[in-house]
Design a protein that fits this description.
Belongs to the GASA family. Keywords: Signal. InterPro entries: GASA. Pfam families: GASA. The radius of gyration is 17 Å and the shape is elongated. Helix 2 packs across helix 3. With about 110 residues, it is mostly helical. It has a domain of about 70 residues. It is built from four helices and no strands.
Length: about 110
């Protein structure tokens, strides 16, 4: 019984740590918001040559850097927009926000 209780405590601790690392989708990170320029027509006004730098900024705080940069660059090339901050704020780039993967989830980080 003590082993089961210890296992349950470890599981709850792990769940708390993991949920603390993953920001909820409603979180808005205002840092970097001033340097972002977007438009309401779905396409931004970035030049394709600016995508690498913007995606590097966007993905700088994730533990999944390679896939984040890969998909961010793909989305930026299509939408010419990268949301401000490191997470969230996708509503500022409608094309970036509305592009979905095969399962219906968000394609762009």
């Amino acid at each position: 019984m003590a082993k089961l209780l210890a296992l349950l405590i470890c599981f709850l601790f792990l769940a708390a740590v993991v949920s603390a690392e993953i920001a909820p989708s409603g979180v808005v990170d205002d840092e970097g918001a001033d340097d972002h320029k977007g438009s309401n027509d779905g396409k931004g006004n970035l030049k394709p040559s600016q995508c690498a730098g913007e995606c590097d900024r966007r993905c700088s705080r994730t533990h999944h850097r390679k896939p984040c940069i890969f998909f961010c660059n793909k989305c930026c090339a299509k939408c010419l927009c990268v949301p401000p901050g490191y997470y969230g704020n996708k509503e500022t780039c409608p094309c970036y926000n509305n592009w979905k993967n095969k399962r219906g989830g968000p394609k762009c980080p």
